Fold each of these.
Amino acid sequence: ENDIDIQDAEETILLSDVTGVEWAYFGIDSVGEEPEWFDEWDNPLQSPSLIRLSLTIREAAWPDLVVRLSN
């Protein structure tokens, strides 16, 4: 087996000077509603269609990264 022990993990900084992070989830929350963006996704039975990451680095907003999830 190839078990990984979390205590053997090393910290890696991917971006420095990050001053803000926001996640958003796009999809249908309830049957019959139009899809929209949500700050939280609470539906364990259905994944959102899109996930958006908004970053602020050194007080400057970066372009949003939006990813479509495959079903």
Note: The longest strand covers residues 18-27.
Amino acid sequence: VESRSWFVKLFAPLLGYGCAWFGHVVFEGNRPETFGHPFWSLYSDFHMLALFLAGRLPGEPPPERQNGETR
């Protein structure tokens, strides 16, 4: 099992990002910012993880207020 741990450590992030990229392209119809700004993307991932672990990650805005729209 230990001999395969390097394989898991190498491909786990690729699998996670691959699912996110797939969702961006297929469901959201946009291009992930990971390609244009890789360091900001990684920083944002860790920032969001820290907020989640601290219990301070806000939920989604109500449907009528998404994308900065106002009534």
Note: The two ends are 57 Å apart (CA to CA).
Amino acid sequence: GRSPTKVSSATIIAENSTESDVLATASFALGTKKAENIVENMNNVEGIFLDYENPRNITRTSGVKNLMKKD
């Protein structure tokens, strides 16, 4: 079959690598909005998604900013 191309990049931050991998892989098929909605409703999981048609369009879940280190 043909690979889905709704997301050009998906980074998932979770408590374990298996959960991160599964969610990142699913994000490519689901698309940015659906993937974001799923991740937003999960505890201790955050995501960063780049749109396929416009990779400069970056979507972050609400908790990503809390993970960024401030100097």
Note: The mean pLDDT is 90.
